[in-house]
Backbone:
């Protein structure tokens, strides 16, 4: 497989700083990340996030928070969990 030199990340905004209200934004960020991965033919479709390590960063954004879920390119093959 060719090396992919793009950092994959999905982000979303939660309107509250209360962690109990972040579920929808977290799901949206993960869905956006999955859509990016599924757009890469070599990764296949439907299971692009299985057995992958993700990083989540939460930062202030006005009265709420910005949630970014990412996957570094070098982890695409290294952490499939196959075997």
Residues:
């Amino acid at each position: 497989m060719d090396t992919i030199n793009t950092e994959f990340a999905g982000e979303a905004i939660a309107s509250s700083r209360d962690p109990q209200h972040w579920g929808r934004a977290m799901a949206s960020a993960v869905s956006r990340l999955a859509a990016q991965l599924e757009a890469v033919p070599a990764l296949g479709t439907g299971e692009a996030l299985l057995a992958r390590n993700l990083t989540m960063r939460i930062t202030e954004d006005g009265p709420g928070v910005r949630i970014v879920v990412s996957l570094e390119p070098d982890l695409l093959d290294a952490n499939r969990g196959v075997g």
The CA atoms of residues 57 and 68 lie 5 Å apart. Residues 23-38 form the longest helix (16 residues). The longest strand covers residues 64-71.
